[in-house]
C-alpha cells in the first residue's frame, strides 16, 4: 500500500515536472496561473473576454497561458493574424477540431478527408446551388412565420425574441437541409428544436469537459434522442433532404463510417449549420427594436425591395452594415490551431516569438479588432451605419496604429477554414428580417427595455447568446 502511494506521488511529481515549464527568451510572456495543472482554466471558462482583457493589460498582444494542462498562446494583434491563418503547415486546424468533435459529439471519423468535405461543402453552399437553397429556405420561413402568427389579426402574441428567432430559423434551416416538407412523415422540426436547445445549453461544458455527473447523464440522453431523430435524414431521396446532406452521407459511407458514426456526424452538421444563424438574427432584431433610428433606416431600405428579389443577390448596404455591426458585437469565436511543428511567429511590429510544438495558438478577434476602441469608436455601442461611408457605400477603411487593417471585424473566421456557409447565412437572416418587418407588426413589450446581458460562458463558441430574453409582441400586419 505504502509503495503504491509512493509510486503514485512519484508519477504525479514527474508529470508536473514534464508539463511544467519556464519562459525562455524567445517565448511569448508566460502566465501559468497559481493552480497547478489547471492554471487559468476556471477564469478562462467563466468569462474568456474578461480574462483575456486582463492578460492583455498585463502582457500585451501576445502571451501564453496554462489552461487545464495545455499551453495556449493567445494572439490579439489583428495586424499579425495572417501569420497564423495562412500557415496551415505548422499550425493545424483539424487536430483541435477533432478533440471538440469527440468531446461534444462523441464522434471519431474514420479516414476523415477534410479537404474533400470542404470541396463538397463549397459546391453546395455557393454559386447556383446557393440560390436554390435560399429559395427553399425562404419558402419554409414564410410558412413557419405564418403558422406562428395569431390567427386573429387583432390579437398580439407575446414571446421572447430569442426563442422566436432561434426556433423559426432553426426549423426553416432543418427543413431546408435535413428533411423535406413540413407535415410529411419525416421527423417533426419542433421536436428536434426542443431537444437541440437542451443540447445547446450543455455545449460549452461538453467542449470544456466540465459537465457534472447529472449533466453528463442528461447530455448523453439528449444526444441519444437527437441521434435517433436524425438517423433517417439524408438516407433516402424521398425524405426530401437537400442534395448537400445526401452527398455528405455518401462521403461518410465512402470513408467507411458505420450507421452509428453517421448519426453522430449528422448531429455535428446540424450544429454547424443551425447553431449560429438564429442567435445572430435575434441580436440583429433586438438591436433594431432598441434603436428606432436604425429600425427606420433598415425598414426604408427594405421597402424598396421586392420579395422575389430576396432569392437572388440584392444590394442592401444599410441592412449589410446593421448585420455587420451586430456580428461585431456578438460573434465571438476562438480561432484555434495546434502547433504541429515548432514555428517562429513574426509579428507585424517586428517582434519574433517561438511557438512550441504541442501548444495551441488562439486568436480572439472579438477582443481585437471587434471591440478594440482604437479601431471602433465607442465599441460597446450599436451604430447601424458604422460600416457605411457618408455617400452610402460600404466602409472598409479602419485603422490601428496608423495602419489600415485587413481584418476590422471577423465573425466568419478567415482563410481556408473560414465559414463556408457565410453567404447562405446572410441570405437567410436577410429574408427573415425582411419578412418579419414587412409582414408583421413586431414591438417591444416594454418600450424602454434594454438588450439582455450576454451569457459570458459562451465566449469562444461562435455567436453569443443572451441571459434571459427580450420580450416582444407580434401579429400579422393588417393590409389596410
Ligand atoms: C451567423 C451565422 C454563422 C456564423 C457567425 C458562422 C461562423 C463560422 C466561423 C467563425 C467558422 C470558422 C471556425 C474556425 O476557423 O475555427 C465557421 C466555419 C464553418 N461554418 Fe459557419 N457560421 C455561420 C453560419 C453557417 C451556416 C449557415 C453554415 C452552413 C450552411 C455554416 C457552415 C460552416 C462550416 C461547414 C464551417 C467549417 C469550415 C471548415 O471546416 O474549415 N456556417 N463558421
UniProtKB/TrEMBL annotation:
Keywords, ordered alphabetically: Endoplasmic reticulum, Fatty acid biosynthesis, Fatty acid metabolism, Heme, Iron, Isomerase, Lipid biosynthesis, Lipid metabolism, Lyase, Membrane, Metal-binding, Prostaglandin biosynthesis, Prostaglandin metabolism, Signal, Transmembrane, Transmembrane helix
Binding site for heme: 419
EC number: 4.2.1.152, 5.3.99.4
Compartment list: Endoplasmic reticulum membrane
Chief site of localization: endoplasmic reticulum
Superkingdom, natural source: Eukaryota
Function recorded in the entry: Catalyzes the biosynthesis and metabolism of eicosanoids. Catalyzes the isomerization of prostaglandin H2 to prostacyclin (= prostaglandin I2), a potent mediator of vasodilation and inhibitor of platelet aggregation. Additionally, displays dehydratase activity, toward hydroperoxyeicosatetraenoates (HPETEs), especially toward (15S)-hydroperoxy-(5Z,8Z,11Z,13E)-eicosatetraenoate (15(S)-HPETE).
Residue runs in coiled coils: none
UniProt record similarity statement: Belongs to the cytochrome P450 family.
Entry keyword annotation includes Signal: yes
One biological process term in Gene Ontology: prostaglandin biosynthetic process
Binding site for substrate: 103, 109, 276, 360
Signal peptide: 1-22
Listed name of the protein: Prostacyclin synthase
